Amino acid sequence: MDAMTPRQRFMAALHNRAVDRVPVASPTSVATVELMDATGAFFPAVHTDGETMARLAAGGHDILGFDTVAPIFSIAQEAAALGCGMDWGRKDWMPINTTSPFAEPEDVRIPGDYLEKPSIRACLDAIGILRHRYGDRVAVIGKVMGPWTLSYHARGVQEFLMDTVLDPDKARRFLEVLMPASLLFARAQIEAGADAIVIADHCTGDMVRAQNYRDFLLPLHKVMNRELSFPTILHCCGKALDRMEYFAQAGFTSYHFESKNDPRESMAIVNGRMTLMGNINNPSTLLKGSPADVEREARAAIDAGVQVLAPECAVPLITPNRNLQAIVQAAAAFGKKRL
Amino acid sequence: MPGVLDEIKQAVIDGNAGAAKELTNKALAAKVDALEIFQVALIPAMDEVGRRMQAEEYYIPEVLLSARAMRTSSEILKPLIAGNPNMKPAGKVVIGTVRGDLHDIGKNLVAMMLEGASFEISDLGINVTPDQFVAKVNEVKPNLVALSAMLTTTMMGMKETIEALKQAGVRSSVKVMVGGAPVNQRFADEIGADGYAADAATAANLAKSLVA
Ligand code: B12
């Protein structure tokens, strides 16, 4: 008999409290083609239908054995609701927004029925279904795109990045008009029963300087965390050691980090101000590696003191389930009793 | 008139499109040869941008701005160079991110460095199907087809595109180069591509060697 339920375990670790073993979570998508086949819930239908989305998400606990379930498999749910053109893809593709229709921040309108748009409604329905299904046994993770990523979608990635240099004020106004969309969706997810909200904001070291985060986004993230006053998890993939200090100042409960960042160094920077979750490599380890490779990386994260184990980012759709299950096995074997 | 050429080069490195345009016009008014501006100012400028990118002195916003400044200048120069017998474009390239994939920053940087190396570029954008590649190849008859993918799941789209080029009977008339974070030399060999490069700066050298 485990001493804690998966939800107790995840919530405790999220807040850096004692656990019976290190939990395994899905702050970003763990949808795989194998899970689709097993649950009968397929891309692209899952993105706009709450019941189907919930069925696929349930596989994350029922089949993979993770301590959390997380619906919302794409980063384009909001883009669709804001009026971007969409290609929802097929079984083995992630959705894509095909247009970014807003040249000026003043053009952006958050529709009055934003929460009723199919791509948004589906996520809220799925969270409600999962909450009902698992009661207080399994943690349900919600997810919204933060203002930076919404600006990529609304304005276009390159245009927005150039705005940050040529017209910083305009870039700021984009962030400010879009932040309410993030907050609106986050509050609705909390209402629907989510236990924690991932805020995905791709202000990554692969693209921009740490100062960009500090100057543009940190003030807004502080506001968001204050307004929500609820467990939040920042997701920002890529290299981030140079900006983790700023992440730690923003008031997130936890940061979901990538394998490009050494877990020990990351833990040292964060220094107890928030917890860390991650950072098993996707392309080499989870997709192409063996369960033994997964175990090795999971142990490195556990030994560094990373509070929650997780894949580093949305897993490639053709990732074998056995490698994801190997994270759970490693947590059980090596992640015993913390604190 | 070396002063103005240095200034154009600097304007491109600084990502100042307005200055690049003004200085290019100024140089032309002073009878500097368009081809010389291209070869002595623009190409070395993009080499320097590539270097700064590799050294992580430049992040993506700066690189995008330099690319834009270069384009502003080269658009003025191109019609003037077109008739110059000394200016042969290095070759024509059809480039795009394969079907199912929206990552285009890396692809755009490759396109820009190729343009800097005086290739003529047809950019099909993102989410490009094998059929769209084939249609463009038939239309512009390029020397090179450049495929980008950032997702492990869309990498197979590169293979499908190469197959489609074969089916259409045009595979032997083009060289295919591939790249993107999950792609490596072994994968490139497996799917029958002619070349792989890890970043935009080496992509330009690869392209030159493939058409040589
Ligand atoms: C920025 C980013 C995004 C942006 C994309 C913006 C844009 N318009 O491009 C956004 C936020 C929109 C995004 C979305 C997604 N992303 Co993303 N993203 C990234 C990130 C952080 C950086 C990529 C980047 O632009 N790098 C900077 C450029 C300059 O580098 P580059 O692309 O590698 O290009 C260089 C070389 O590869 C090469 N090159 C590139 N193309 C070519 C072509 C040729 C011919 C040659 C020779 C060379 C070459 O030269 C380039 C210049 O030097 C990476 C993380 C990473 N570690 O790479 C993840 C990453 C690529 N994304 C990932 C994922 C999973 C996604 C999503 C599926 C998430 C989701 N749940 O929906 C979606 C994709 C949806 C879709 N259908 O495509 C994963 C892919 C995993 C995998 N291997 O399958 C990564 C690796 C993150 C991770 N660690 O898991 N993403």
Radius of gyration of chain A: 19 Å
The poorly predicted ranges of chain A are: none
Secondary-structure element order of chain A, N to C: HEHHEHEEHEHHHEHEHEHEHHEHE
Distance between the termini of chain A: 20 Å
CATH superfamily of the largest domain in chain B: Cobalamin-binding domain
Count of spatially separate domains of chain B: 2
Main sheet attributes: strand count, strand direction, barrel closure of chain A: 7 strands, parallel
Order of helices and strands of chain B: HHHHEHEHEHEHEH
CATH topology category name of the largest domain in chain B: Rossmann fold
- Could you estimate the helical fraction of the residues of chain B in percent? 55-70%
Highest CATH level, the class of the largest domain in chain B: Alpha Beta
Coarse shape of chain A: globular
On the 0-100 scale, what is the average pLDDT of chain B?
A: 92
Low-confidence spans of chain B:
none
Report the span from N to C terminus of chain B.
32 Å
Mean pLDDT of chain A: 96
Examine the secondary-structure arrangement and name the CATH architecture of the largest domain in chain B: 3-Layer(aba) Sandwich
Number of domains of chain A: 1
Strands of the largest sheet of chain B, in order across it? 2-1-3-4-5
Largest interface (CB < 8 Å): A-B, 26 and 23 residues
General description of the model:
The complex is a heterodimer of chains A (339) and B (212). In chain A, helix 6 (147-155) packs across helix 7 (157-166), helix 8 runs parallel beside helix 9 and helix 13 crosses helix 14. With 339 residues, chain A is an alpha/beta fold. Chain A has 14 helices and eleven strands. The longest helix of chain A has 25 residues, at 168-192. Chain A is globular. Chain A is 48% helix and 12% strand. Chain B is an alpha/beta fold. Chain B has two domains: 2-81, Orthogonal Bundle (Methyltransferase, Methionine Synthase (B12-binding Domains), Chain A, domain 1), CATH 1.10.1240; 91-211, Rossmann fold (3-Layer(aba) Sandwich), CATH 3.40.50.280. Helices cover 58% and strands 11% of the residues of chain B. Chain B contains nine helices and five strands. Chain B has helices at 2-14, 17-29, 34-54, 60-82, 105-116, 130-140, 156-167, 185-190, 200-211; strands at 91-97, 119-123, 144-148, 175-179, 195-196. In chain B, helix 4 (60-82) packs parallel to helix 5 (105-116). At the A-B interface, strand 4, helix 7 and helix 12 of A face helix 4 of B. Cobalamin sits between chains B (100-107, 109-110, 146-148, 150-153, 177-182, 197, 199-200, 203) and A (29, 74-75, 94, 96, 149, 152, 157, 202, 204, 206-207, 237-238, 258, 282-283, 312-314, 316).
